[in-house]
Specification:
alpha+beta, five-stranded mixed sheet, 5 strands
């Protein structure tokens, strides 16, 4: 019976079967994707976002509020700064908590929220008392109050928030597993339909191929060329019969693919333009940072420094004719003024890159290492042979800023007694190395901390500085075995 049918009838049958099959597959795929998308949206909107909101509330109180209080105790914050930091943290926490309460809440969440709210009110009352002590400037009472009242109140509320976070994780896992199970089911159905459709199509196609093998072979060859990436492949159209129409349809598909490829190329070009724009923006940001550093340096050196110098002269002029004894008010004032001028001078040198601009990277690096050695009390080892070809100024500036950030990390975190600094130029690359024998750290833990709670800003700043001029940063560290940082810049980059 198949032999008595025309090619058009046979192809019509094949197309009809495949069309119904494809429609069924498309409908099932759409329904499956809708179901999966709904589950994933539920995970994101009702679980992931609330989980982040709860984490933000915990961070505001456990880190920002308590950190401000501890810095106030240690004398690293003024009373006004501590009060401002605490107020800002409480406002942010209140905003995040209000947003969280506006999401979908399970009954278990509502129960934990009801248990949390009295603890939150107690915490608010305690912090209100602490704010009153801060305004009064009563440090002794505040220290006792932190240990006896504030820490227990904040910790109790944080533990309840931790239970809420744990509940969010459990529910999220369950919703995700349900979505994954649905996805696997839809995949199995889709594959089954594909196999069924392939079997039916193959049966009809084999019957047609026996009659029209030559045109089909040519069409197959064109399709193979297209599959291998030759978008110019076309099938010959012989006559106006069914196979000619099929070849025409194939050619139309190839034209469409060629158009899609051209659009994709345009999109890639647009992406490249965007990347270049972002690189220019990064360079402008770096220039803006340097300009702000120069402004701050000018204010410190030309304004505050001059005022301190004048103050020192007036103090010296105020000495009695017989001089003044050690420990006298004028002697103390003169000492404090002298120390302040020295600190401002060091700060100016650290902030401003004028030394780098005037004398070059090697001199600026050695001078800065010398100053930090005095502050840190290390044994400093410098290996920096003279560079024959000077790198572009943006590269030298980025290299110097990375060195500053690395030595600051050593000073504040490493507890090191030996520090090694290397600077070498090799095959168009400028390589900076900083190594210490300090306590080290776990890089994975730092990455997790940076991902969830802000992490080590110093390491992040180094990476940003290097990336702005096309450099790369490699950090090696083991707890108890020191840290090594290697940064590679293109010293021949056209960045000047």
């Amino acid at each position: 019976m198949m032999e008595s049918k025309s090619i058009k009838s046979q192809l019509t049958s094949l197309v009809a079967v495949l069309t119904v099959f494809l429609l069924a597959v498309v409908l099932l795929a759409v329904e499956g994707m809708r179901h999966i998308e709904s589950g994933l949206r539920t995970v994101y909107e009702d679980r992931v976002i609330p989980m982040q909101q709860i984490a933000n509330v915990r961070y505001a109180y456990s880190v920002r509020v308590m950190g401000s209080l501890h810095q106030l105790e240690a004398g690293r914050l003024s009373w006004d700064q501590a009060a401002a930091n605490i107020g800002d943290a409480e406002a942010n926490a209140a905003h995040e908590w209000k947003a969280y309460l506006g999401t979908f809440l399970t009954e278990e969440e509502k129960r934990l929220i009801a248990e949390y709210e009295p603890l939150a009110r107690t915490r608010g009352t305690v912090l209100a008392k602490a704010n009153a002590m801060i305004k009064a400037g009563d440090m002794d009472t505040l220290k006792r109050f932190i240990a006896g009242e504030i820490y227990p109140a904040v910790e109790s509320a944080a533990m309840k928030l931790g239970e809420l976070s744990a509940l969010q994780e459990e529910v999220t896992k369950q919703v995700y597993e349900d979505a994954a199970a649905a996805y696997r089911m839809w995949v199995r159905i889709f594959l089954l339909l594909l196999l069924l459709g392939a079997g039916v199509g193959a049966g009809i196609g084999m019957a047609v191929m026996r009659r029209v093998s030559a045109p089909i072979v040519m069409l197959q060859q064109a399709a193979e060329r297209l599959a291998q990436g030759d978008l110019t492949a076309r099938a010959p159209t012989q006559g106006n019969h069914e196979l000619g129409q099929l070849a025409g349809a194939f050619n139309a598909m190839a034209e469409s693919l060629q158009g899609i490829a051209a659009e994709r190329k345009q999109t890639e070009q647009a992406r490249e333009h965007l990347v270049r724009d972002l690189e220019l923006l990064s360079e402008r940001l770096a220039m803006t940072q340097e300009e702000e550093r120069r402004k701050i340096t000018y204010a410190l050196h030309e304004e505050l420094g001059q005022e301190l110098a004048a103050l020192k002269v007036y103090v010296e002029m105020s000495r009695p004719d017989g001089g003044m004894g050690p420990g006298s008010p004028l002697d103390v004032a003169l000492t404090v003024t002298t120390h302040a001028m020295e600190r401002i001078r060091k700060l100016v040198l650290d902030l401003d890159s004028q030394e780098l601009e005037d004398f070059g990277l090697h001199a600026a690096m050695r001078n800065y290492c010398g100053r930090e050695t005095v502050v840190g009390g290390w044994n400093m080892h410098i290996d920096a042979p003279t560079i024959d070809v000077q790198a572009p100024r943006p590269v030298e500036r980025a290299c110097f800023r990375v060195l500053q950030e690395a030595l600051r990390n050593v000073l504040h975190h490493a507890q090191a007694s030996e520090v090694w600094v290397e600077l070498h130029q090799r095959a168009g690359e400028l390589e900076l190395g900083i190594r210490d024998n300090g306590i080290g750290f776990d890089p994975n833990a730092v990455r997790d901390e940076k991902k969830h709670e802000g992490g080590s800003q110093g390491l992040l700043l180094m990476q940003i500085r290097a990336k702005q001029v096309g450099g790369s940063v490699e950090i090696k560290s083991t707890a108890g075995a020191g840290t090594e940082i290697r940064v590679v810049f293109r010293s021949d980059a056209a960045l000047a």
